[in-house]
Specification:
Number of helices: 6
Low-confidence stretches: none
CATH class: Mainly Alpha
Radius of gyration: 26 Å
Shape: rod-shaped
Structural class: mainly alpha
Number of strands: 0
Oligomer: single chain
Order of helices and strands: HHHHHH
Strand content: under 5%
Mean pLDDT: 95
Distance between the termini: 87 Å
CATH superfamily: Ribosomal protein L20, C-terminal domain
Length: about 120
């Protein structure tokens, strides 16, 4: 009988990769070489997308703030500049929530920003 070498360790390694490749299509799910490449590429995308998510949310918050501020007659840049002059230190995440859920308090913030702008 021929001697098997590395069999349990190799099988364990392969099973780990193939388990992570579940849901992939074709050979990317079944064949160890292509599955390994696919899993490594998936890890790269996963890493990049964790960083991209932060960018995407910031963009969303800025769009929401801009829409709400323009509804009250002030562009986004002017709104942020007015708040900075008034020493109102609120993060964009909070401002976006106020713009969506607490419209009255956001309106007071817009008025504060307008007061601190001269000729914007």
């Amino acid at each position: 009988m021929p001697r098997t070498r590395k069999s349990p360790a190799r099988r364990k390694r392969h099973k780990k990769i193939l388990k992570r490749a579940k849901g992939f299509r074709g050979g990317r799910r079944r064949l160890i070489t292509t599955a390994t490449d696919a899993v490594h590429k998936a890890y790269q995308h996963q890493y990049e997308d964790r960083r991209r998510r932060k960018r995407d949310f910031r963009k969303l918050w800025i769009q929401r703030i801009n829409a709400a501020a323009r509804a009250h007659g002030l562009p986004y840049a002017g709104f942020i500049h007015g708040l900075a002059k008034a020493n109102v230190e609120l993060e964009r995440k909070i401002l976006a929530e106020l713009a969506v859920k607490e419209r009255a308090s956001f309106k007071t913030l817009v008025e504060i920003a307008k007061e601190n702008l001269n000729g914007f």
